[in-house]
Amino acid sequence: MSEVLSEQRGAVRVLINHDPATRNALNADLYVALTAALDEAQADPQVGAIVLAGSGNFFCSGGDLRLLAQRRSMAPAQRREKLEGLHDLIRHIGRCSKPVIAAVEGGAAGAGLSLALACDLLVTTRQAQFSVAYVKVGLTPDGGVTAFLAQFLSRQMLTQLCLSGERFNGERLHAMGAVNQLAEAGHALQAAVQLAATLADGPAQAMARIKHLCQHAYGATLEEQLELEAQHMVLSQGEDEAAEGIHAFLEKRPADFRQLRQRTNE
User: Fold this and answer.
1) 10 Å Cβ neighbour count for 221?
2) What is the mean pLDDT of residues 69-90?
3) What's the DSSP call for residue 166?
4) 51 touches 192 (CB < 8 A)
5) Strand order in 12-18's β-sheet?
6) d(CA 260, CA 256)
7) According to the model, what pLDDT value does residue 246 have?
8) What pLDDT, on the 0 to 100 scale, is given for residue 260?
9) Angle formed by the axes of helices 204-216 and 222-237, to 10°?
10) Spatial CA neighbour of 64 closest among 110, 103, 104
């Protein structure tokens, strides 16, 4: 039975998908539990960044095939309802205003790869194994994996990975441009927490807007992106974060954005 374990490490909230018997396969209970955990981290002023990991030295093996096999007898509308649990979770990660970092140990397959790529940043080991594995069991990709991969792969490479289901390791994924940091085996979570800690004390409102800009950039024209940048900059210039950041720079001291975040939530 899957559950989400939660740990607080300084200003970083670590959320761990815990179902080692299935190598942390995805199911409806996990979607609900992880969404709730993200909401809790979002609302906590002590949390500046979030790390998503898997227990038992493996990130996520994808959808639970035993459960997926049962959907053959369902009507298409019922299958769609079940699928939306995954897609709502993927959307939820994107909507979270705080940085979400995936820490991939061991590997990620199918929807597990979707989950990793849905995060804002990705830390993985060199040896971790990845695959768009759906074709191996006669299924098609979901969870946004084709959209995420298309952001840094040519159509030909995307098609090859999806049609073949071939495995590729963390070093190759890094070379593709999808990995922010490579770690040695057994150290992905530690490296991800360290990366998250460098972001956790940043200006919360400005960072939420930056995350939105980065997500929007891939499907926007230059004019659309200029407009969104202008909207966000106008708002940011009038807020306490900008006042603190600019004053700190001029006074040659570190900016204290954490106290602003805590004050806002009091």
Assistant:
1) 8
2) 94
3) -
4) yes
5) 3-9, 12-18, 49-54, 100-104, 121-125, 181-183
6) 7
7) 97
8) 86
9) 170
10) 110
How much is the pLDDT for 259?
A: 85
Total-model pTM: 0.94
Q: Please say if the pLDDT value at position 264 is more than 70.
A: no
> Token pair of 172, please?
């190759």
The pair phi, psi for residue 115, each rounded to 5°, is -60, -45
> In the prediction, which pLDDT does 136 show?
96
Rounded to 5°, the CA angle 198-203-247 comes to 110
Helix axes 76-95, 28-43, angle to 10 degrees: 20
Whole-Å CA distances, 61 to 25, 109, 111, 113: 5, 5, 8, 8
Question: What single letter denotes the amino acid at residue 97?
Answer: S
In three-state secondary structure terms, 68 is: helix
Q: How far apart are CA 140 and CA 257, in angstroms?
A: 44
Q: Which residue do the tokens 């071939």 mark?
A: 166
Q: Find the mean pLDDT for residues 24-35.
A: 95
Beta-carbon contacts of residue 58 (< 8 Å; ≥ 6 apart): 20, 23, 24, 105, 106, 107
